[in-house]
Amino acid sequence: MKLAITLSAYNEEKNLKPVLEEAAKYGEVILVDDGSSDRTVQLARDCGAKVVVHPINLGQGLAVLTGFKFALKQDFDMIVEMDADGQHDPAEIPLFVEKMNRTGVDIVVGSRILGSNYQGAPWARRFFLPSLTRLINLLTGYRMTDSMCGFRVFKADSLRRVMPVLDQMLEPQYLAAEMFIRFSRAGLTVAEVPIRLKDRASGVSTKGLFRYGLGVSRSILKAVLSKKG
Description:
The protein is α/β, with parallel strands linked by helices.
């Protein structure tokens, strides 16, 4: 089973090295640098990752799509998507692979809600995440508990089958909602595995609660109004 492990990063030099070193135990690491101004690119190359560079910051969503398209040009069986900030544990990748092999689904999503440390999550996540997920489930027919987690595994052949859908994505930053809506229309199936979210070793998220909620709402609206995909 040949895995591509794709990470998108923006100024993550302080968190990146242990993530890349651990991820490399499970597959070939592909890092998409989204216009970083620090040493993210050089550090990733020093760790042996393949690096794709956006010369300017385009948004995490577009960086994720760049990673998918780069990996799909090669002979991988599965494509792992995970964050570069250290919150996702590469040691949990085998849980996703086992779930995909056992169920035959196209996508396995990590669930922080099903994970062991969810009760200690910030109140905003505990309040808004279930509501957003219920809305996306209503629009897609999926039965997820955590639609916004960025730790996922995809069958490479399934993504190849819906390549036109990847080209139709409109949201540059908050991709998950649009992705699930379009993938559900394309007939891709989903299962979940519990994950444990780790603390960032350094820095803080730049998404912001209000901006994040607005961005996800915009993403949903774009996907619902789109007639393609």
